[in-house]
Amino acid sequence: MSGFLLGIAVLLLIGIGFNLAVRADPATVSKVVRYGGATILSLAGLALAYVGRFGFAVPLFVFSYWLIGRPFSRLSVGAEHATEFGASNGRPSTGPMTREQACEILGVRLGADADEIQAAYRMLMQKLHPDHGGSTHLAAEVNAAKDFLLGE
């Protein structure tokens, strides 16, 4: 009888969880699933490490680390601070902007004229402007690329 009641309680909790997930913001649900999964995997890895099963524990730790969004390509010293010093897309800053970089940021071909540059700039700023929910950093990069290409 107690198993039946426990099963009903579990089904009720699952139903409540699905109801909350349907109403929630997808970004919030993604974050909860990633961090919850990483927590569960880390705890399982700790339990396996405690009983001496390191061969099974290490992959669980690696996967939980990946699950929370820290890929191993960013494990180099100082890479996590690169954006603080003007890096773009996680790449270290290599000095002043080149024409190729500016064209890549705006999404125009290398020999684009002023009208094409202005059109690409307007389209990107409509999406990336901080007043419309965009990023200040990305808007600044788009502005810098436009200014560089138009010689302003």
Q: Overview of this structure, please?
A:
- With 152 residues, the protein is mainly alpha-helical.
- Helices cover 65% and strands 0% of the residues.
- Helix 2 runs antiparallel to helix 3.
- The chain is elongated.
Element string (H = helix, E = strand) = HHHHHH
Please tell me how large the radius of gyration is.
Answer: 24 Å
Distance between the termini: 78 Å
How many helices in DSSP terms? Answer: 6
Query: What form results from the Cα inertia axes?
Result: elongated
How much helix, percentage-wise, in residues? 55-70%
- Largest sheet data: none
Low-confidence stretches: 72-92
SS class: mainly alpha
Average pLDDT rating:
79
Please indicate the percent range of residues in DSSP E strands (runs of 2 or more): under 5%
Please tally the β strands and state the result.
0
Identify the notable features of this structure and list them briefly.
mainly alpha
